[in-house]
Design a protein that fits this description.
The structure holds two protein chains of two kinds. By secondary structure, chain A is an alpha/beta fold. Helix content of chain A is 32%, strand content 17%. Chain A has helices spanning 6-12, 39-48, 79-95, 110-116, 148-157, 182-193, 208-211, 215-223, 239-245, 254-264, 315-327, 347-350, 353-363, 381-389, 392-399, 448-457; strands at residues 15-18, 24-27, 30-33, 58-60, 98-99, 125-128, 142-145, 159-162, 166-173, 201-206, 232-234, 277-282, 289-291, 299-301, 342-346, 373-377, 402-403, 424-427, 442-445. Chain B has a seven-stranded mixed β-sheet with strand order 4-3-2-1-5-6-7. The chains are: A alpha/beta, B alpha/beta.
Amino acid sequence: MSPKTLYDKIWDAHVVHQADDGTCLVYIDRHLVHEVTSPQAFEGLRIAGRTVRAPEKTIAVPDHNVPTTAGRETRIDNEESRIQVQALDRNARDFGINYYPVSDIRQGIVHIVGPEQGWTLPGMTVVCGDSHTATHGAFGALAHGIGTSEVEHVLATQTLIQQKSKNMKVEITGSLRPGVTAKDITLSVIGATGTAGGTGHVIEYCGQAIRELSMEGRMTVCNMAIEGGARAGLIAPDEKTFAYVMGRPHAPKGAQWEAALSWWKTLYSDEGAHFDKVVTLRGEDIAPVVTWGTSPEDVLPITGVVPDPESFTGGKVEAARRSLEYMGLKPGQKLSEIAIDTVFIGSCTNGRIEDLRAAAAILKGKKIKDGLRAMVVPGSGLVRAQAEEEGLAQIFIDAGFEWRLAGCSMCLAMNPDQLSPGERCAATSNRNFEGRQGRGGRTHLLSPAMAAAAAVTGRLTDVREMM
Amino acid sequence: MTPFTTLTGIAAPMPLVNIDTDMIIPKQFLKTIKRSGLGKNLFDEMRHTPDGAEIPDFVLNQPAYRKAEILIAGDNFGCGSSREHAPWALLDFGIRAVISTSFADIFYNNCFKNGILPIVLPAGQVEALMEDAKKGANARMTVDLGAQTVTASDGRSFSFEVDPFRKHCLMNGLDDIGLSLEKAASIEAYEKKISALRPWV
C-alpha cells in the first residue's frame, strides 16, 4: 500500500460513495451550528419537509451576535440579533439537536466549545458554517468551514459532496524563542505563503515547534489555516492530544476509549507520503509579529517598518497603497511607534485559557495606558470561570481591562462591540480586513502577550522588552 | 436554483486583489434570516458613504456598470469568511458570473450552490478581459458554460475548466440535497459499518 498522509487517511475513512469523476460523498461526524449561517438552512429543511438526519452529531451554540455584557440571557437589545438567537433557540428545540443557550455556562464561541466539551475528537470530520472551523484540525480532525447551502445539506444527509484537496506540509523546525507564540507561527506562515498560498490544499502542520505547542497553541495555528487560503489545517494527534481529550464530557470512556485510542495512534502521515507543496520555516527565525495592512498576509516582525507599496509587485502594489491609506500609515514608519486606541483579547483564535494566562503574565501589577479602551472576551463561559478561579480576571480588571462574557465579540463586530471610524485596535483575532471590526476601524493582529504589552504602552510593542 | 447555460451581459472591472467577503457583504447585513434582498448591500462600504449616499467612483455606481452581470476581479476573490451572504448579495444584485485568476475555496463552492459561475483563467487572460470590461456598457461578454468559453466584446475567446459534476448541476439547476438523498442506502450502510468500527463517533 502506498504511504498516506494524515489527510488521506481521514478522507479515506469517511468516503460514503465515490462517483466515476472522483466526486465523493463524505460522511460528517460532527456538525457545529451557530445563529448567523444556519437560519436559512433550517428554513430550507422545513420548506422541503426534511429532518435533521443525525441530531446527536449536531451541536449548536449562539456566539456571533450575542452581547458580552451582563443581562443578555433575558434581553438582547438589537432586534435583528435577538431574532437570530431566538431562531437558533427554536431550531435547536424543534429539530432536537444538542444546544448550549446563552444562559448556559458552557456557552461560548463554537470552536472553543466543541473541543472543550469533547465533541471534537481525532480522526473525525467536523464542519460548521464558519471559516474558522479549521481550529478543530489541532486534534487531527479534518475540519473546515462550509456555506449555508452546505449546512442544509449536512443537516439533511450528514454528508457533503466533496472533491479531494491536495496535500500541503508546513513544517516548523526547531524551537520558538521566548516571547514567540503559536499566533506568531500562524501569522508568519501566512506572511510567507500569502492568503492564497494554501488554496486547494489541506495543510498538515508538523515539526518540533508544532509538537512543543500545547493543544491551545495548536488550535491557534490551525484556526488561521483559512487565512492562508487552505481548506483545512491539521496536526497529527499525540499524547498531548489524548491527554486533552480524556475525561471530557463527550469523549469516549472505558473500552471505547481504548478502542478509540488505538485508532487515533494510527493517525499520522506515513514515511514517504506525498505532499504537493512543502513550506518550511525555522522556529528560531520566527519573531513576535504584527500586521500592518488589511490582509492577514501583511505581516512583519514588530522590529520592522511599514513597507513601501512600491516594493511589491503586480496587483499587490495597488492593494498595499489602499491598505496604507485605510490604515493611516506611512511607508518607513516604525511598527513599534504606532499608537493604538483599543485592545481586544479574545476570539476563536486566542480566547482560550492559555491565551488569557499569557496576557495576564504581562499585565500583572501593571496598568493600561491612560485613555485606552481594553477588553477581554473569554472564548467560553468555562474559560471565563477558570480564569476567575486562577485569579487572571482580577489581573485584567486591576490593569483596567473590561472583563466580558463569552462570544465572538469584536472579532467581527456583529454585536455591540465595535470600533469607530479611525479607531486603531491591537487585536488577538484573525482578520484585519477593511471594516471587519467596525466601519473605518483599523486592526493590527498580534498574539495575546503582544496585545497585553500594547495595552500597557499604548502603542504596538515588542513584548520581549517587557519579559 | 436557476439553471446557468449561457449569459451575455455587461462585465464590471474590479482589479483589486484579495477582495474579501467582508467587502462583498459587511457583517451588519448577516443578521438577516432570509437569503433574498442583499443586492442593495453588495459591496456596501465601498459603494455607499456611512449616510447611505452612493460613492460615484465605485464601479457598480457608474452608469455603464449598474446593470453588470459579470465581475472581472483581481486574484483570490472571495477570501475570508464562509458567509453565503456573499453569493446571495451578488446574485440579488444580478451578478451571475465572476472571473478571476483564483478564488477562495468556500466562496467558490458557495457560488455553485446559488447558480453563480466562478471562472478561473490565467493572469494574462483575466487582464485582457479586465481591459475589455473597462470599455463600459459596450463591452458585453458572453459566458457559455456548455462550451466552457468566455468571449470578449472584441471576439477573443478563452476556454475555462469546470468540474463536470458541478457543471451538470449548474446547467440543470439541480438541488444537491435531492441528489445526495438518492444515495440514502449508501449513507445507511456507511453508518452501520462505522457504528461497529468506531462506535464512539
